[in-house]
Amino acid sequence: MTAIQAATNCCGSAASHSCATERTRFFPGQMVGPDDFSQDQDYFRARMRRHNRLLHGWGIVCGASVAQTKKPCEVVVSSGFILGPQGDEILIEGDTTVNLCAEDIDGNAPNDCVPADPWCSDVQVTRPANTTLYLAIRYAECPSRPVRSSGCGCGCNGGDCEYSRIRDGFVIKVLSAPPASYNGIKAPNANTVFACGAAGSRICPPCPTDPWVILTDFTVAADGKTITSMGKANLRRYVASFASFFMLCP
Prior knowledge:
Blueprint: H1 34-56, E1 59-63, E2 66-68, E3 74-77, E4 80-83, E5 89-92, E6 96-99, E7 102-103, E8 123-124, E9 133-148, E10 161-175, H2 190-193, E11 213-220, E12 227-230
Antiparallel strand pairs: 1-4, 2-3, 3-6, 4-5, 7-8, 9-10, 9-11, 11-12
């Protein structure tokens, strides 16, 4: 089982009508198939992504802090909630240990979709010394709960299995350079955030093509394992949240 990116992310602007803008209309006597139910899922998920991306933005909402452990090249990412650049919600349900000097065959560090393989360990890698590297996370979909499938053909595949669920998950990876969406990143000016555009209009922000959100940056010593610094580049992008704001009325 491997992590899979969302099949259709539908990350167009608010004016885009090219992705999941139709929902199923049910009526008596209708022949309903998997495509009809999938269409409704795609419709509401695309709406959620557009809402998150255009109204809330993207970045770390809360938690997801990174701390070193006593082992070389090892850190722990705490539980947290993140909005991906394309509107996906990334939930880290518990502390996740990351070996910065190990990768799977896809070049990823921990993969929330794939349990540890007792027979095949991750490949150990030596990180370049005194070079800034970036620990990043992205949304992934995890197929789960395989069940026996009767199939729909007339061949001999009656014993095949199908995954009956898709679970929201994530993938963590060490990047050698920040995604393009981080180029020239700086905190926005409040005056420009609330300002109207030319002729009183506001332009919908383009959708980032890169799904990664940076958790921290780090450097290692000449041995390629000992972490010498962390978080100096200050690229933890946060989403403005009103979760802790409330009012008391007399």
